[in-house]
Every structure is written in C-alpha cells, then in structure tokens.
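Loading example: each entry is read as two labelled lines plus one structure line.
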Amino acid sequence: MKPSRIDPEAIRSRLRQAQGRDYWKTLEELTNTEEFQRWAEDEFPHRSIEWLRSPNRREALRLMAASFALAGLTGCTVQPQEQIVPYVRQPEQLVPGRPLFFATAMPICGYGLGLLVESHEGRPTKVEGNPAHPGSLGATDAFAQASVLTLYDPDRSRAVTFRNRITTWPRFLTEAAGIRERQSATGGAGLRFLLGATSSPTLAEEIRELQAAYPKALWHFYEPVGGAGARSAAVFGRRLHPIFDLTAVDVILSLDADFLASGPGCLVYSRQFADRRRVTGDIKNMNRLYVAEPALTSTGSVADHRLPIRAVDVEPLARALAREVGAAVEEAPGKLGDAQRAWIKAAAADLQRARGRSLVVAGEGQPPAVHALAYVINEALGNAGRTVRYTEPVLLNTEDYMQSLGALAEAMRQGQVDTLVIAGTNPVYTAPADLGFAEAMALVPTRIHLGLYRDETAELCQWHIPETHFLESWGDVRAYDGTVSIIQPLIKPLYDGRSIYEFLAAFTTAPDRRGYDMIRAYWRKQSGSTDFETFWRTVLHNGVVPNTQASSVAAAANAGAIPPPAPSAEIVATNVEIVFRPDPTVWDGRFANNGWLQELPKPISKLTWDNAALISPATAKALGLRDEDVVEVSYRGRSVRAPVLVMPGHADDSVTVHLGYGRRRAGSVAQGRGFDAYQLRTFDRPWFGEGVEIRKLGETYSLARTQGHHEMGRRDLVRSVTLKELLKNSASTAHEGQHPALSLYPEYAYFGYAWGMVIDQGICTGCSACVVACQAENNIPVVGKAQVLRSREMHWLRIDVYYRGEPENPDVYHQPMLCQHCERAPCEPVCPVAATVHSADGLNQMVYNRCVGTRYCSNNCPYKVRRFNFFLYSDWYTPSLYAMRNPNVTVRSRGVMEKCTFCVQRIESAKIQASKMNRRVEEGEIVTACQAACPTRAIHFGDLNNPNSAVAQMRRHQLGYQVLAELDTQPRISYLEVVRNPNSEMPEA
Amino acid sequence: MSVDDQRTTVARQSGEPLVAPGHDLESVNEQINRIVLRPAGSGWLFGFTVAFLLLIGLMFAILALMTRGTGIWGINIPVAWGFAIINFVWWIGIGHAGTLISAILLLLKQQWRTSINRFAEAMTLFAVACAALFPILHLGRPWVFYWLLPYPNSMQLWPQPRSPLIWDVFAVTTYGTVSFLFWYVGLIPDLATLRDRAVKPLKRKFYGIVSLGWRGSAMHWRRYEMLYLLLAGVSTPLVVSVHSIVSFDFAVSVLPGWHTTIFPPYFVAGAIYSGFAMVLTLTIPIRKIYHLEDFITMRHLDTMAKVMLGTGWIVAYGYLMELFVAWYSGSYFEQFLVRNRLFGPFGPAYWGLILTNVALPQALWSRRVRRNPVLLWCLSLVINTGMWLERFIIVIVSLHRDFLPSSWGMYYPTAWDWATYLGTFGLFFTLLFLFIRFLPMISNFEMRELVHRTSTEGEH
C-alpha cells in the first residue's frame, strides 16, 4: 500500500495536542490519516486463519513457535503506552523484583469496585481492594480476585471476525461507516443498541452523542441479574437507588436479600454489619439479623434467626410485617403458616423497639411489591434517612432489564430493527427462554457483538469484536454510592481488543478514537480545573474522583401505591415453586470460563464445577430423592435435567436453581458444565414461580463437593455462645480443655518474631473471597472436576461449613481452615527428608525442592490442610498463564506437598524492608492475601511477640480458642467463638 | 550327649518321623536335586509364563506411574496412603516366616524346620523384594528415593532421623541383606552338591561359581556351622524388630486408629501369622507336584497350623484391645474411630476381617483340619486375605474419617492400584519359579544329616 501524502500542517496541529510522552515513529503515523491507520493495523492482511479452527498438533506447534519468536522480538514491554499512575510512593522507575500497585476499578453489573492491582514488571498478577474506594474499603469479592485469570484466559476472543473469518478492526470501521451512512438518513430508526448495565459517565456522554446523531435509535440495557433498584418506582413515583448504612442498625430483617454477599455495596454492608458484631469490639451493642429466604445464603448463614420460606411466601410475610409495624397495606389472604406468623410478629416487635435503628431489606429476586413494602416498612419504622437513604440512580439505565430486553425482542420480531449492536452482554444465553430472543435476533440483517469471549451471542452475530478486559483498557465507573473511579489499564491489550468506548465510537463521526483520549476528554471537561494534569494524576493515583458520590434525595414512600396482592386463584400444576438465583461463583455465567471460580466451593453447598437443583430434606424425602439423583424439572412447558442436592435449611416445596451454567458456546473451562437454568426462566416471572414438576429419572450424576460432612458430633470444633450467655458469664468457659502442654522438652523460645493469626468466626459469611485471593497469590493450580471428585482439590485455605440443630433449619457456622502452623506440628517429625520444618519465627515451612512425596505429613495432620500434587496440576504449558503467576511464589511440580505458608513471600519482603531501615516489622505491615481480601475483616495477622499487636491481644481474648488443642499441636491460629444474638421472645420453632 | 544328639532325641521323642521311612542319603540327594537338574517340565513353563506375564503387567503399571504420577492411584487427601502401604505391610509381614523358621527355630533346635527352611527363606526374600518396591513407588517423586538414605551429598543434608519412615529404610534394608546372606550361606553346601552332580558344562560352571569353592572339608564345615549360627543370632532380633518398626509408621502418628502402643507386638504376631499362612499356601501344592511328601510331612503341616493358631489368637487379642482401649480411653475420636470401623462405609471390611482372621481359623483346633492339606490350604488363603484386610482397615479406615468432618473422604482403588498389587504377585512367583527351577528348594545337606541321624540312631 502506498503511504499517503504527508501534510505538515496536520502534523503540527497534532503535536500541539499531544499530551505527555506521546512517541511517534514515522511522519505517516503522526498525520494519523485513515489510510495510515488501516495500513498500520492491517500489516498482515492475510494473517493466519488457522486460529479460528482448532489446529492440529503440528500446526499448533508451528504457530506457537512463530508467536514465541515474535514475543521475543517485542520484549517485555507490556504496560500500556499511555502513562499510568502507580499507587503510593514508588521508585521513579521500575525496579526488577519490586511490584508496583495501580489503582483501578472493576465494573460488574454496572457498579465499580475500586482495586489496587499488583504489577510485576508490567504484568498484573494480583488484585487487592482499594481502601480509599467507598465500595471496597480495602476488601474484594471472589470475582475481583479471579479477574486476573480472566485477563490471561487463553480462551478469550482474540481477533475481529466477520462471519467467523478473521478480519481487521479497520475493516470493521469501514462497515461501521456504512452503517453510519445508512442510519443517518433515517435518524437511526432501524438501529438498536443493547448494552450491559453501566454507570460510566464517559459512556453516558458518548451515548448522548450517539443519540444526537441517531435520534430514532433506541438503547436497551440488559443484565440477567440485578436492577432491583428499578423496582422502587411504584412507591416513590420515580426510580431511586437505596443505600443502606448498617453502622447504626440494631435490627436488620432481610426479605430474601443476600445483601452481605451479592449486589452493589455488599462488601461495604458486610464490613458495617461485621463491625457491629466483632467479639473484640463493642459486643454489648451487637446487632441482630433476621433472614427469611428459601435457600441458605451467606447472609442467611450468619443470621440470628432464619426462617426458611418459599420465595412466593415472602410477599405475604412482608405484608404481615408491614401491618405489624402499622403501615396501611392489604394483607395477602391465608398464605402464612402459624409458625411464620409468630416469627414475623416477634421480628416486628424487635424492629419496632429499634425504631430508627432498624432496617428491612428486600432481595434482588423479589418482585416490585416486596421492594415497595420494604420501603414503606422502613418509612414506618423511621429508618428512611437514617439507616437507608435514597439517591438518583447510579446506573445509566433506569428501565427494568426484562422490560427493556422484551421491547427489543418484540421490535426485532416485527422487523423494525435492521442493525443490532450488542456490547458487554450475552443475551442469547441469558435471555429468558420464553422470549425467543435468539430467533428474533436472527431476523435482524446486521448484528454486531463486542465481548470478551466468542460466546453464544457472538456466534449468532456476523461481526464480533474482541472486548478488552478492564485490566487492559481505560474507562470510568461509579461505585454503589455513585463515586467515580477511573479504570486504568495495567497492561497493553493482550489481543486485538477494543473497549466499549472505542467500539461505540465507531458509530460516531470520529470513529477511530482511543479510549484514553475519550476518558481524558470527558474528565478534562468535568474537572473544570485549570490544572487538569494534576487532577488527572491525583484521580488515577487515588483510584476515586472526589466529590462524585450521589447525593441523597428526599423521598416519601407511598403505601397506597403498592400493587395489590397477586390473586391466589391461579391454577398451577403443583404448589412447588422454582427459584432462580445468580450463582455464587460464576454469577450469571460471565465467569463460567474462570477456573478459579469454577473450582471455588460455593459458600454453603461446597459444590464445585456444577450447579444443582437444591431442595429441602423434607421435599427430598417426599419425592424419594437423594443427592446426585438426576431429575427432570418441568416448569411452564419447558424442562431441564438437573442433579439434585439436598440442602439443609431450604424451604420445603421449593427448588432453587442457579443461573450461569450449561453454557453452549464458551471456553474450554465452561463448556457443557452443569445445566442451563435460563431454559426455565420466563419473561414475566424471572425470579420464581409455582407449578414445578419434578420427575426422578433414575440416573445419577456425580457432583464434586469439597465437603460432604457437616455434623460435628461431639467434636469441639466451632464453639458458639449467645450474647446473653456471654454477658452473664464474663468469665467464659472458652479456654476449657486447652491444657497447658505437658512435655519433656522445653518450649522453643522465639526471640524475634512469632507470626500468628486470629480468625473471628462469628463474622465470617463464607463469601470465599479469601480462597480465591489465596489461589491468586500463591499460584495454586486448578485441578478440574474429576480431581475434586477424588478429593484432590488444592486450595490452601478452605472454609468449612458445619451445621448444628435440625436439618430443617440448622445453625450454620463457617470455619476458615488453613495450615495452623502448629508449634508442635505433627507433620514435621514424620517427614523423612526434612522437607517440612519450623522456622525461627514459628512458621511451619514446606521445602518443595526437598519433598519426595511420602505424604506422611498429610496423614499426620489433624486439620488435613496439606495439599498434594498427585499429578502435574500447575499448567506449565499455556504461555498466556505464565504472565499471571506471582513471581515470588514457586510454581509447584508433580509429586510434592504444599500448604498455606502464611504468605511467607509477603512476610519476607516486609522483613527485608524493615531490616534495611534497621527496625522491627511493625503492626499492619504484613497483610496476608486472605486477610486483605476479607470483606468483614475476620482474619487478623501479626506478631505474637509484640504484646500490643492485634493478634496478641485477640489471642488472649476470653472467647479465643484453638481447634483440636487437646492434641497439643499448639496452633498459631486461634479462633474466636461465634457469638449469636437471638431474640429471647422468638418462639421456638 | 552332644548337641546333635539332643536334637535327634527331640525329633525322636515327638514320635512321628520328620522324614518318611526308607530314605537313605542317595535317595534324598536324588529326589531333591532331580528337580533342579532335569529339564523344565511343561507345568513349570506354564506357571512361569503366567507369573512372568503378571510381572510385565507390573512393569507397565510402574511405567504409567512414573510418567503420569501417583494420581493414577485412588489415594487422595485425607487418604494419602492406599494400596501401596497396605501391600508393603502385607508383603513384609509375609516375609517374616522365613527368618523365624530359619533362625529362631534353629536356635530353639526345632528339627522339623529343616525341610521347610530353605523354601521359607526364599519366600521371605522374594516377599521382601515385593514389599521394598512399594515404599519407593508410592513416593510422589520416586526418582529421588535415595534422599531417604544417609549418604554424603552436596545438599549437606541427612535424612530426618525422627521420622519412622527413616527407621523403616534401615529396618527393611537390614532385613533384606541379612535374609539374603542367611539364605545364601545355607545354600553353599547344596550348590556344591549340584556342581558335583551337574552333567552339562554350563550348569557345572554356574554352580561352581556360586558354590564359592566349597569342598566339604572338616574345616569348611566347622566354619560354616559357626557362621550359620552367628547369622541365626543376628537374624533373630530382626524378626521382632522389622515389623515393630513398620508398626511405628503408624503408631508414632497422632491419628486415632494408628496412635496406639499395642501395635508392635500385634504387628509382629500378625506378620508371623501371615508368614506361616503363605508358607502353607506355597508348600502344600509344591509338596504335591514335586512329590516331596516324604520330606514335608503331615507333621510339618500340623506344626505350622499350630503356630498359626497361636499367633492368630495374639492378633485377635489385639483387635479386642483396640475396642477396649477406645472405650476405656474416653476419647471421643477413638470411640468414633471404632464406630466407624464397625459400622461406617467400610464396615464390611471389618466384619470380613473378623471372619477371615478370627472366626474361620478356629477350625485349626481340630486335628483333622490341621492334617487335611486341602482344608489347610484353603484356610491359609483365608488368613492371607484376612491379614490384607487388616492392613486395609488400619490404613484406609483410620485415615478416611479423622478429626475434622469437613475433610472426610472416601477411598476407591483404581485399576492401576490393582494392577500394581497383582503385578507384585508376578514378581514374587517369577522369582519363586526360578528358585524352584535352579536351586534346591529343600536343604539337601541338612536332610541328609537328618536321614543319617535317624537311620543310625538305633546303633547307639
């Protein structure tokens, strides 16, 4: 291709605009003409088509060799070419071996979670929460922890394709220009955009720009999960976004809301909730949590009173509660049982006693009426403005997702759409089955898709553009309270990806814009400050844009506007209901190709790699079902085959199914796992409905659960006490059975450090962020379902779940279990080759090089926290995963034992820093990966030799104890007893 | 009266002859050496082929293990030891009869040992060879097994002496070495006899080399007797020590079901129990096939059955004590272990153990059973199975449900587990067939001595 004519005037004007260190290689580049861009982008116009079909071995090797050679040529510079700003004080340049941290944010369902991402020589390896971010407060969820793996996922889509053939971005720009021309003529009448939920201010600006260009084009937003805020319209007359403040809440009642583990702000709510029940804090003012829900969730598992109730009965329950607290609402006739009435009566009395200091939360999976009731009840209890405030919606989209998607499907079916642009959502997979979305979409002549993966939707679109991961693109996003964060890339896009900003810009008159320029341009306008560079650097550094939180609005809930109770006369086949829930680990399916999340045991069921139909023990008995029986679940004319899992604490006559599995077109990790619950979901009742039929098929299906026994028997593993008992006997019985050691040998003296950990079990919600954090920090491999079935999962940290009481509604306890770093570790004396030894600061260490793999240490470990590489579990052969690994942690090979090290790499790095300054490591300098991730701050780590350290003090706490202390292993980890705060007026079930 | 005379007296006093009447020195020589010197029969070839095929299976299983990893077995966390350790303990237990018969019975002047000691020693050696494979194979990284040996190395690191696995290494290697020496020294006079009787030059050459220049001079005999007695003295403590140390692999742990002081004697008794069972399993058919009924008489079978009955009761006492101590200890974990053993998912294995190791062997009280080779042979198989089940229960059932219910699991052996186990039978029988074919399986010179004394005793 002939280079275009060079225009000196254009060069000069461009150089005037250039910001920072903007390098240019050639004058052609500088002129930045379209011809040049096309030429530059399309350097290999006939690039290999091989990537699209699965290559045979020989071809794969050839291509791999070629890409290795090319990778070698370009060297290691993978940071984005734009200037990014590291967090905290950093060396002026890159010091090999010293990681840098950058503030950024992860968008999920439109809301942002502020992160600090660790970068080793330009490779993001580990995610931490950003303490300055209001939605994180330093904590993260499991999704954020696992996001690094998605970034390096070899299954991500890598190239722009047109009709399944590789093409180029410039060619797509040509296509987009054609669309622009066609649509401009009609004002965009046939043009539809379908986006995932978003709160990005820059995107809002861009959408406005596009709306101006195509006034008749319609914008749709769809997420299969979320959007409960939109259900406030009925009582407030407009859509408002509720924000809770649990710091002042004494009594909380959850109406089927898993507000501690899912939804916007859950990390903050977890922290606030936990702060009011810390054993070491002001325990006298402990809060009380009531939860009414069908299937046990993380929130339900920490409740002081939990009522298993069918999802359809939550509305009658809410109505009864509303009447109890004096709101004028209609009662739903005759649906509640006596026990439920008594329960809600006691809860209502408790809530009323705590007027203005109480809170009622309605769940994502509940209809507008229940949300409206919750708002009305909160108002009646004087909570509005105190424990709950309302703001204008944080998300751009205010319409209900289902309505939005339904309108689009209808328009497509009627032939009103000639061009459909889908970005960041996968409706072909996630749309309710009765909507016929895929069939309707097929009627659209031009379909364009932007996504991380070549998924079900990409398959049905002619154009597919690979999307950049948030760790490799610029953007902005708002937190649950509206605070904006700039998304700062840590790495240059690994593949030929485009961010949603760049993608949508293709339809504007300035089609080939860079995301960086767009974000900066928007914020340059917004900042209003004269010194934009300082503003920009500060914002990037801190990870939040100051003063952007949504301000509260006054709103009065109108009880009269609550929709009347649904007529109960509807004829359904059975009174068994089905409940749809997002999966705790793969969410709506978007994380399905993430091995860490697939193998992460689900918080309560401990199921990995699959979803299941969850039913109560009584229902199972009535239907003659046992775990792993395959059933046919039929609901409103459609059916799926699903394995059964009997869950204690599940409501009777109710089946819970989790979304996100049964992917038809996904990466190698997700493909074909579990069953697709979307196939049963219906448009008008997306969350639950009665009339399910369950038919036993007589087959079984193996479910890989990491824990199969939840009864403690007479074992003294998790100790619990009620607040009343605790306050009565201030001299606790906790240390009972913790005899001083009897030994012939003197105790080892620790003159330097003595690392220890204290875990406050009472505030552990089992959310499992720590498990993934540990996996990411310590290069822990994924072993796959077959190996989990053989009990060979590799997690160094697991969260054990124990039940106490009747299986209909048991008390649930979470116990994070990791290497206890015993003073008298049973593993150490039995190792024949001295591969596991004690360090001078009391760590039980594992020397991988020395290990020959006798596994005696594991046999002799009473906690069974040691993990063995039965095969070569670490992926040594996928190049894209090399970059992901923590360079400070050995990647283990076959045949060696491994286990929790207390993040020894972090300990040593802090010790080196301290010794350089000739001082001791101070309190808080070492934060283990699990501790950092924990939303409730249940995990504490520090030096036991420092009497003022938090761990030393908590270890002496009267409720502190050690698991299996009677074996005289002298663990370095102590647990704090679970304190529950039951209402003494609550009638016994 | 000389020592030898006393020996003879004991033999005579027990009433029944240890050699069938009518044998002279030459007929003994003829009958024992004929098996070695004649060409291989079709029966031998068939048996050897089957054993060798199994051995090839073992090689294949080992190849798979080395290339893919220990994960091909059914082990997991919590059951990190499986078939490999069960089989190790089982084989090493079997290997106990040989030394007991050769050394202890020699020192105790039990003359009836003469006709079975060679065979039992060979069996010991082969069983130890099979057993020794497993601790190496079961390692995650078998190619560095030598790190368990104390050798000067660039890592400047010795094995960790507190680990019973290190004691195991010493115990088993010592036992293997001493057993081999004892067996080989015992063979020397017989090898010389074979050298003298072999016709084919190759065989003469072979036996000539391995007989180490034995000429049968009085000096040779004097030194020989001295060495043999000394080796017997060295071997005797090993009979007790090896299985005691093997039991420490379990007893020094903290695991309920392992952590118990009764293990050393209970393991030793179990080892002798299974060792004698294996000797019977092998001698009864061989005695029939090679027409050795004159040398391995009913009295031998009867005596061995009695030893089994005795050791069987020691083992049964061990089982009883485990139950009693669990109750007496007041420890919930111990009591749970017993409940889980008896009624847990592996409960049938425990009841199978009681049936095979305690209930059925009571038939040995009957003289008629002890003297019925077919019944005795069946019982020996039953006891061998029982002893395998015992190790299964100790290893698997103790591990699969220990302290924290959250980590409980199950154990299912894989095809590779079975292939490796059956493969060691291939190794064992291949060696045994070679032994039968190339070496005198009954101590020739000791039998001659016995015949000599028996035939000349009337002249005194």
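Chain B touches chain A through 49 residues (CB under 8 Å).
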